[in-house]
Amino acid sequence: MAGLHANAQTARTSVSAGFELGLPSQSAYKTGVGAALKAETRISGPVAISVTGGISSFGQKVLPTQNAVDLPAVKFIPLKAGARYYSGNFFLEGEAGAAIKTNYDKNTLFAFSIGPGFFIPFDESKQGIEFGIRYENWGNQVKQTGIRIAYRIGW
Q1: Fold of 2-154
Q2: Which terminus of the chain has a lower count of CB atoms within 10 Å, N or C?
């Protein structure tokens, strides 16, 4: 197990691609699904910087005053940069950037997120599965708990 811990820590740069689930609260949107690509590089010991881009799609809630027809999904493109602090295979991450609403009014919203996660390496490689959970706010239009499951490869 010590070898796994050491190898996970020696990856200077990594890329991950994963599935994202958004659980909005106090929002006009239903559960969202999406995908994201993240790149990160260690800058000093346990500190890494990251950039993330993806796409998320949310169903809309039907209000009692609206017709009970299905409203089309609303899509966002979140683009963020941030930092991670590692303790073993666990990390705390904070990011900020923009969430671009791609349909209707095409707004660009300020986005930020913060939350913990962990990395499970495969054997003695720098590849593995990453899990994360975060609080996320996109211009006060989407306040959500985000869950991310991703495949990560490092070098």
Answers
A1: Porin (2.40.160)
A2: N
